[in-house]
Amino acid sequence: MLPVLALVGRPNVGKSTLFNRLTRSRDALVADIPGLTRDRQYGIGRIGPGPYLVIDTGGLDGGGDQLVALMAGQVQKAIDEADHILFLVDAHDGLLPDDIEIASRLRREGKPLTLVVNKTDQRDPLMAIADFHQLGLGEPLPIAAVQGRGVTALIEQVLAAHPTTDEAAAPDADDGRIQVAIVGRPNAGKSTLINRLLGEERVVTYDSPGTTRDSIHIPFDHFGRGYTLIDTAGVRRRARVHDPIEKFSIIKTLQAIAECHVVILVLDARAGIGDHDATLAGHILDSGRALVVAVNKWDGLTPEMRGSVKSDLARKLAFLDFAAYHYVSALHGSGVGLLLDEVDRVHANATRDLPTPELTRLLEAAVAEHQPPLVHGRRIKLRYAHQGGRNPPLIVIHGSQTDAVPDSYRRYLTNRFRRALDLQGTPLRIEFRTGANPFAGRRNKLTPSQIKKRRRLRDFVNRRR
After folding, report:
1. Structural domain count, the chain
2. For residues 392-417, b (16+ Cβ closer than 10 Å) or e, as one string?
3. What is the pLDDT of residues 86-100, one digit of tens each?
4. Which of 62, 132, 139, 292 has its CA 20 to 30 A from that of 231?
5. 433 vs 300, residue with greater confidence
6. Is 16 annotated as a binding residue?
7. Is 39 annotated as a binding residue?
8. Which structural domain range is residue 298 located in?
9. Is 316 annotated as a binding residue?
10. Binding residue per annotation — 456?
11. CA separation for the pair 145, 14 (Å, rounded)
């Protein structure tokens, strides 16, 4: 087993910065704003003598609202899972009462602990750590997480007490798991849906838009099949986004869409289907990801309200005719169990091998039933088709004058291929290619007899005038 290191401390002491430094990534959102991190973020440590698991947590403070209490619960779970705690304090701020309170709490946990004094750049390290000796947690270690100074020495000291076994190794990033991104508008129930799928309170849920700010990757096994669930921040209309943190959160959400295998688009049935839902669905379609649509908060709606929602879906999301719709309640769990089965099915469709003979036969049947239009009196000829890519499936069609194929005929072929191949849940792209004409730009050289014939015809025409 890999050693587990938990990063704990007040808000804005540099936990996420150290997390990114240790994992050599940008998975954790970083800004000079307290309380930015709210959920547990896991990563594989890449700095030090061996691999280890590092957990980024939200800041602990003395706030009394419900959201702070939920964040504290996430920190406690990370502490329970950890083999070693890295208690971060801020050299710029010095020793604060909250640090003393957190130190007392961590001391009661009885777990191995290292006091880490961050932000010691541009100052004497011995002077920076002087005030923190009174915490009674051993010799403080000065680091500068932004520059990376002292980080390697810190990890070497920590891992010396937690040697890794020979069989322990860092897991491969591409381990065959299906990457599933949960996206939608703020407060649509994305985090609640993830907690329902996992069967635990893995991410913070709160009845307020914008609770989730970062993209949280959560490995998950279900009946022997591996998944990675990605909880993302809600995406609002651009005109309403003014907070720079929210802008970065939206960027990470769009990156999660581009990098995942399957997207679950969560819609809020009680809020109705808005134009922004259609815009987000269009972005998912452009990315080419396989798609499952989960209409959340379906419980408690009257038959009239359900009929209105279905009418809006058919009208505003008509371009998602290839996707399957599931009507669920993430809070109560109704219909949620079918989502992972649908994810398996659409992922299999998006990555399926399509034999060239079958594609060519389907193309010939489609052309025989409905011929391509004429272009300048000449018929467009489509000769054969083959697969050009997966996720999304790409069908390449070869022929002549294919650059003149109209969009309507492209849609006709797309629908024919999708129905015949049963490619539900994934976009299908078609690419036309025209072979190079070997005689393009070349002129035939006339023989002497052809030259004489042309001269006679020219003389004949001139005499008739």
Report:
1. 3
2. bbbbbbbbbbbebbeeebeeebbebb
3. 999 999 888 998 899
4. 62
5. 433
6. yes
7. no
8. 178-350
9. no
10. no
11. 7
What's the gap between Cα 335 and its chain centre?
A: 23
119 is in an annotated binding site: yes
77: annotated binding-site residue?
A: no
| CATH code at position 109 | 3.40.50.300
Share of the chain above pLDDT 90, in %: 39
* Whether pLDDT at 207 is above 80: no
Is 351 annotated for ligand binding?
Answer: no
Q: Residue 269: CB partners within 8 Å, gap ≥ 6? A: 295, 296, 297, 298, 301, 305, 306, 309, 327
pLDDT tier at 428 (50, 70, 90 boundaries)? very high
Confidence of residue 223 (pLDDT cuts 50, 70, 90): confident
Is 59 annotated to bind ligand? yes
118 is in an annotated binding site: yes
Closest CA to 197 of 182, 211, 210: 182
185 is in an annotated binding site: yes
Determine whether the annotation assigns residue 422 to a binding site.
no
Is 20 annotated to bind ligand? Answer: no
Q: Is 165 labeled as ligand-binding? A: no
- Any known ligand binding at 188? yes
Q: Is 14 among the annotated ligand-binding positions?
A: yes
Q: Which amino acid is at 179?
A: Q
User: In the prediction, which pLDDT does 62 show?
Assistant: 59
Residue 232, in any domain of the structure: yes
Is residue 359 predicted with pLDDT exceeding 90?
yes
For residue 332, the tally of other CB atoms under 10 A from its CB is: 13
Q: Is 0.85 surpassed by the pTM of this model?
A: no
Determine whether the annotation assigns residue 435 to a binding site: no
Rounded CA gap, 144 and 386, in Å? 55
Residue 70 has pLDDT above 80, yes or no: no
Residue 28 marked as a ligand binder: no
461 appears as a binding residue in the annotation: no
Query: Same domain, yes or no, for 316 and 406?
Result: no
Cα–Cα–Cα angle for 275, 243, 147, rounded to 5 degrees:
130
